[in-house]
Amino acid sequence: MKYISIGGLCFVIDAGLLWFCTGVLGWDVWLGATIGYWTGVLVNFTLNRTVMAREGGNLLRQTTRYGILLGFNYLVTLAFLHLTAMLGMPVVAGKTVIVAASTCWNYLLYRFWIFV
């Protein structure tokens, strides 16, 4: 439940900034996605490290592994949002789909690779 709650909060931050930057400010999708993504990431890492890390864990190892996962997730997110925007899908709908998919693999990687 903690993982889902943290993820939900981070999704609201990420998607909210994406919507605000693209829908209200009129910025390009890549810029709104970048601002939302990295803001959500900062909140997500801090909260998940507190909840999922066993006795604190090795911060350098955790941040290195987390950074690798973030790079992958960021590139997948940008590619997917670009594709869905070309197909006429609203950006927040595309963001919702990619977050649902990445939530599955992220949970496993957080639990068994990053925060160990």
TrEMBL record:
<dbReference type="InterPro" id="IPR007267">
    <property type="entry name" value="GtrA_DPMS_TM"/>
</dbReference>
<feature type="domain" description="GtrA/DPMS transmembrane">
    <location>
        <begin position="2"/>
        <end position="115"/>
    </location>
</feature>
<comment type="similarity">
    <text>Belongs to the GtrA family.</text>
</comment>
<dbReference type="InterPro" id="IPR051401">
    <property type="entry name" value="GtrA_CellWall_Glycosyl"/>
</dbReference>
<feature type="transmembrane region" description="Helical">
    <location>
        <begin position="17"/>
        <end position="45"/>
    </location>
</feature>
<keyword id="KW-0812">Transmembrane</keyword>
<protein>
    <submittedName>
        <fullName>GtrA family protein</fullName>
    </submittedName>
</protein>
<keyword id="KW-0472">Membrane</keyword>
<feature type="transmembrane region" description="Helical">
    <location>
        <begin position="91"/>
        <end position="110"/>
    </location>
</feature>
<dbReference type="Pfam" id="PF04138">
    <property type="entry name" value="GtrA_DPMS_TM"/>
</dbReference>
<keyword id="KW-1133">Transmembrane helix</keyword>
<feature type="transmembrane region" description="Helical">
    <location>
        <begin position="66"/>
        <end position="85"/>
    </location>
</feature>
